[in-house]
Amino acid sequence: MPAPRSRLIDELRRLGISDEKVLAAMAKLPRHEFVSEALKTRAYDNDALPIGHAQTISQPYIVALMTQLLLQGKRLKRVLEIGTGSGYQTAVLSDLVDVVFTVERIKPLSEVARKRLTGIGCRNVHFGYADGMQGWMPYAPYDGILVTAGAESVPPALLAQLDKGGRLVIPVGPQGGQVLRVIDRRITGAFKEQDVTPVSFVPLLAGKA
Ligand code: SAH
Fold first, then answer.
1. Whole-number CA gyration radius for the chain
2. Is the pTM of this model over 0.90?
3. Which of 8, 117, 159, 170 could make a disulfide contact with 147, Cβ separation 3.0–4.6 Å?
4. Which of 6, 18, 36, 58 is an active site residue?
5. pLDDT higher than threshold 90 for residue 41
């Protein structure tokens, strides 16, 4: 593994990421291929970076944490991601679950991510250009849903499309005051939620751009 990438993986371990499968998936992925030429030297810093259209590729620690929380050490079958962005989180998921459905509201980002993931050999990903606040109904229900933009409140469609026994991981709250929330849907259908840590995401916006 290239030295900067292996230093990043060590840092994620130090920060408490313990799921070896998640760490291995990130160790394999060339994050420098998900950012512009000018930012390639910073691709393995533990930072969010701009990807154009006022959006960012998430911080590696947050990607690792959200993935670890979503999977809980299991192999999920069908995962919905809201906010494809660069496709980095999508690629991490595609290595760890059977099928990923990813939705993005900015068309050029969706198209670039699709080409990028095809280029690195991800074959189990379906890309949607749509408003993810509505979930992605045709493929519902999902046993995992991961949202990579900050919601003012949890969109009801995402709760409705979460299967019993499934888990939703979502940043919620006002800009400047978001928390990472984990919502489990019990076999009975009831929801149980816990807030994990403060986070800072670009906003989840309604409608297609
Ligand atoms: N996982 C991405 C994060 C990108 S930033 C990565 O690591 O690269 C969040 C993304 O969510 C942005 O691309 C933004 O356009 C998208 N987004 C915001 N609101 C959305 C919505 N309602 N539906 C789909 N995508 C949305």
1. 16
2. yes
3. 170
4. 58
5. yes
